[in-house]
Design goal:
Helices cover 39% and strands 13% of the residues. The chain is α/β, with parallel strands linked by helices and 315 residues long.
Length: 315
Amino acid sequence: MKLGATSLRVSALALGCLNFGSRTSQRDSYRLLDQYVDAGGSFLDTANNYAFWNEGCIGGESELLLSRWMKERGNRDQMFIATKTGAKPAYPGAVFENMEGLGRKAIEAAIDESLRRLGTDYVDLYYAHIDDTSTPLEETLEALDELVRKGKVRAIGCSNYSLSRLKEAQRISEAGNLTPYSCVQQRYTYLQPRRDADFGIQVSADEELLTYCRNRGDLSLLAYSPLLNGAYTRKDVSIPESYGGSESLSRLQMLKEVAAETGGTMNQIVLAWMLHSDPAVIPVIAASTPEQLGENLGSLDIKLSREQLERLNQA
């Protein structure tokens, strides 16, 4: 799949590495990474703050795990590595209210730290992780553009940006001949959140963003938390209240119907629906067991008809 307006191509499914090296042990992380690569995947998604909230962690554990795995496998050149900056605690014990931010000095320091942890001299995709409204967009974009010019970063993206800020960022990049964001990664799933849903620092993709990406044609959309931590299929995980309501019941029923028709699981239909959408959405999948990852990867074999897509969209 092409990434935005760049010449770079990425896997249809990105593998989220959030808990690798922390809640997911090195042995299990290696097993999942090997399974993903054996299936043809190469797009690994991490961040410099993964996963400071897990017990005993300070952030950077995921990057360090990936570094060890790539070194042992000797496959850095075959991997497409995406990492992020802007949402790591500024000091030990800090929380999201005290993040490093997206100022020039913070970005310059963060990329060098990530490169060191990853054991590489460049990353393929570098995200502004969470919008920093206290820093001018010009400063952030100029700093990221400089990383591209220096060869430390091949492409840039953003995550958890409002549509208005994203539009402004693209305008600034175009006017100043700066490297533009090639993609945006937002919270997104098949169920639609309630109007009063509050995801805190996370920003959910909506129809306006989809329309913007569709009309531009040069901005890829990635979806994190596409399967709501297993809520579609696991009996021990409930659908979050943020997605409750009669409309969700209707969409859940439609997922069940299409899953039965295709022989797939509800999880697979959610991912296949994203891949078949206009614009196509790249899901960032997560797994803690080979069985979960295998199910996710199986979504690539699901072929949805135009009629099934229409029913899923209209439910």
